[in-house]
Design a protein that fits this description.
This protein is mostly helical. The chain has one domain. The protein contains 6 helices and no strands.
């Protein structure tokens, strides 16, 4: 599951910012990061925690004072990670979503995208491809001036 998260994150970012120069590559990297970390850790948390991603975003902002270009890229990546959590439906598991402030130990939950039926993931990947194509065409049109 990669293209679903990239496509839906790009779609959301495009509809908010409408900026063809926005660092969409960083959004894409951030959008797949929670599952990549989850694969290494072997579970959904902490990479599917909105608290952890938000703290990482704040740390990136604090660490990049005076480095606007780097800040923009790091914030775009964090936005991608937050959107991944939303579109992976992680918010339905409060223990993971709010960890560590939920007061529970690090939950041992499967990575949501790997816990869904294959047919659902295939449909989501197709939708992701379509969204990537649509956003790419919107960005090209915006760069061309119309």
């Amino acid at each position: 599951m990669l293209l679903w998260f990239v496509g839906v994150s790009w779609f959301a970012v495009w509809n908010v910012f409408r900026d063809p120069r926005f660092p969409f590559a960083a959004v894409a990297a951030g959008a797949v990061l929670p599952d990549a970390v989850g694969l290494v850790v072997g579970r959904a948390a902490p990479s599917h925690s909105a608290v952890v991603v938000s703290v990482a975003m704040l740390a990136a902002v604090a660490a990049t004072v005076g480095r606007r270009s780097l800040r923009k890229v790091l914030i775009a990546g964090a936005i991608g990670s937050l959107l991944h959590i939303v579109f992976d439906f992680s918010a339905g598991d409060a223990g993971v979503f709010w960890w560590p402030v939920s007061g529970v130990p690090l939950p041992d939950r499967p990575i949501p995208s790997l816990d869904r039926p294959l047919a659902v993931n295939v449909v989501l990947e197709v939708v992701g491809v379509l969204l990537i194509g649509w956003v790419s065409s919107q960005r090209r049109a915006a760069r061309a001036g119309g």
